[in-house]
Amino acid sequence: MSHSIKIALVFGALILFIGINKRASAQQDAQLSQYMFNTLAFNPAYAGSAELFSVSALYRAQWVNFEGAPRTQILTGNSPLRNKKLAVGGSIYNDAIGYSQTFGVYGDFAYRILFQKTQLSFGAKAGFDIFQSEYTKLNTTDPGDPKFEQDVKGKFLPNVGFGVYYYSDKYYVGLSSPKLVTSSYTKNDNGSASKNKQERTVYLTGGYVFHLSEFVVFKPAVLFKFVSRSPAQIDLNVNFLFVERF
Prior knowledge:
This protein has one domain: Porin (Beta Barrel). Helix content is 7%, strand content 52%. The chain has one helix spanning 3-18; strands spanning 54-61, 71-80, 86-97, 100-114, 119-133, 152-167, 171-177, 184-189, 192-197, 201-208, 210-211, 216-227, 233-242. The strands form two sheets. Strands 1, 2, 3, 4, 5, 6, 7, 10, 11, 12 and 13 form an eleven-stranded antiparallel beta sheet that branches. A two-stranded antiparallel sheet has the order 8-9. It is globular.
């Protein structure tokens, strides 16, 4: 059996393992843009793929001058170890929307299988989120709704993730679920209970490198994001590199 067939089987098995729950969710992963430069944030198998120590930062803001608009900051770093088959990384992020905020810290570890022209990497991610939300500041249609009469303050949510990343100098494809644990919390207030749950998110990414000329490189990429009971999200990105610099 060729290693390409084996890799296809690995990706298929991972899809079945990760699965997608069929229940609604409240808190979800941060929205990512320019994901090509922050792949480690959602796929731990990406660690070490650049073959050098790498640090990246992302700041994302929507709806400028709109109170409560989504804001995301992510800082990631990764590096291969002396043993070229191993790599490590880490990420810190802050995601806020309205009166809700999530702060997370995660560490990444990757084991890489080296082929002649390609590499197959398996990654694991572990860390925690701290979630808080000021529900009492919301203006609701029903002021007496008990679901919004109590804030969530500093809820500690540990989690783990897994990913696969197959790449070469010409292309890459990745599959991951950075938070396998479907974290949940329950608010009790005056005898009532309101449960919020974070469902798994599955990311499928791919990209290819086209050399249009000696000085121009075209790099299209795509990301598919799957969450249960939500339509799949597709994000397309295109990069042009001139003299491999800009």
